[in-house]
């Protein structure tokens, strides 16, 4: 799957149905949230980006760097680490929408920005790290 195939413009945010795989993603994000937070802090501390983005998917994807592989961990979701800059460079976020993304971006110390890719399309969600 290519980055330009990910966004289904005009779609609403994915909503979790009772049998939705998104419920499984939520469970996995809770389990791995500290590891994901460490990667976000590293991205920011190293000056790579002020806008870390994590990509959650269940199939092959050529975007970002793998940090949690579902095959290695025996989970349903893989997580890749990326940045706003890569999303813009790869055409996932169009230049004219960059400011809107930045204005809606939540504090990366409190929330992980997750780009969730499902067969129906993809969308950004913010998941709290919690206490």
Q: Any descriptors?
A:
alpha+beta, 5-stranded mixed sheet, single chain
Tell me about this structure.
- It is a single chain.
- The protein has a domain at 42-131.
- The protein has a five-stranded mixed beta sheet with strand order 2-3-1-4-5.
- The chain has 131 residues and is α+β, with helices and mostly antiparallel strands.
- The model has no long low-confidence stretch (mean pLDDT 86).
- A hairpin with a 2-residue loop joins strand 4 (111-118) and strand 5 (121-128).
- Helices cover 32% and strands 24% of the residues.
- It has four helices and five strands; from the N terminus they run αββαβααββ.
- It starts with 20 loop residues before the first helix and ends with a strand.
- It has helices spanning 21-45, 70-73, 84-89, 98-104, and strands at residues 52-57, 65-68, 78-83, 111-118, 121-128.
- Residues 1-20 are annotated as: Disordered.
* Number of helices in the DSSP assignment: 4
| Estimated radius of gyration | 14 Å
Element-by-element helix/strand order? HEEHEHHEE
Residues in β-strands, percent: 15-25%
- Find the count of extended strands (DSSP E, 2+ residues): 5
Termini separation: 35 Å
Q: Give the structural class.
A: alpha+beta
Helix content: 25-40%
Question: Major sheet: order of its strands?
Answer: 2-3-1-4-5
Query: What is the makeup of the main sheet?
Result: 5 strands, mixed
Average predicted local confidence, pLDDT: 86
Shape: globular
Task: List segments where confidence is low: pLDDT < 50 over at least 5 consecutive residues.
Answer: none
């Amino acid at each position: 799957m290519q980055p330009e195939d990910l966004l289904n413009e005009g779609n609403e945010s994915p909503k979790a149905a009772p049998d939705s795989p998104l419920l499984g993603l939520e469970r996995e994000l809770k389990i791995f949230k500290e590891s994901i937070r460490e990667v976000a802090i590293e991205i920011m501390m190293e000056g790579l980006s002020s806008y870390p983005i994590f990509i959650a998917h269940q199939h092959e994807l050529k975007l970002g760097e793998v940090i949690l592989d579902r095959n290695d961990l025996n989970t349903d979701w893989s997580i890749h680490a990326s940045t706003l800059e890569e999303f813009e460079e790869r055409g996932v976020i169009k230049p004219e929408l960059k400011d809107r993304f930045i204005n809606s971006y939540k504090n990366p110390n409190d929330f992980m920005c997750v780009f969730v890719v499902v067969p129906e399309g993809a969308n950004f969600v913010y998941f709290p790290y919690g206490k």
